[in-house]
């Protein structure tokens, strides 16, 4: 039986991954503390892991076909787990935002290992659903507006990862896509407004992730606006502080200086991904809307990472770095079974009358 290593096994996402994969594989879970909820799981083995200890990390990854990283924060770990996987000859799956690497580091991993990045909800499902619209639901895609976010409980690690997602290595803030290139979009992000399929007014901020840019570069989409949304302005206020700090110091130093509070948590959690596109289908002008509504994103993220690990075990892809949306089944969300009865995914067409 194949063995899969999970770094950060006891977190919300790590638990989902381990429970999913233990059905068919031996899972070696690693972190500093024993994951109580997983210890009685069949095929699960816990091993103490200090990611900062290189020899410990190498020993943990040894004898594993795939290594999954769902630990953070990203700006601390960077490519450390990926390098360890490459060292022992294992395939690497990253369930986080994306690897915060410079071009030289990216080329090294691409040349010497098999790496799957963005194996979660965002990025991951975000890219898959945009690809579904462009390549399957519409014959020609003209204009697209996307909204993602909501009100989820935050940890210091998740806040750090959200703020780091705006770093230029993996995305473009205050940007949109038009005429085959990235352009600047300046809006008042501290003003609430209603967006499609969301019942409450939200703050929104333009942002193009590298995942989305990669998809757009090989598409004929005329224009796309992508907005991160939030019911509470706390993250956006932190973002403004962070970006101001990083003008005067390094990104890592700015993150360490930032005073992150966990007191402003939402009473009710929800998260939405809405893709609203206009284009042509069977010769008709139509509006296509994809609507994903969930209480939290951790279960979907963990399930995506587990699915990518399964794909990695069974495939013989050459060395390289692959986005999750490149290998996930295009109808993944149509087949996905939600455990929360209030969560749902739907696709709608409306003909645009001239």
UniProtKB/TrEMBL annotation:
Saccharopine dehydrogenase NADP binding domain sequence ranges: 4-101
Q: Which Pfam families match?
A: Sacchrp_dh_NADP
How is this protein named in the record?
A: Saccharopine dehydrogenase NADP-binding domain-containing protein
**Organism field:** Bacillus amyloliquefaciens
Organism classification, top ranks?
Answer: Bacteria, Bacillati, Bacillota, Bacilli, Bacillales
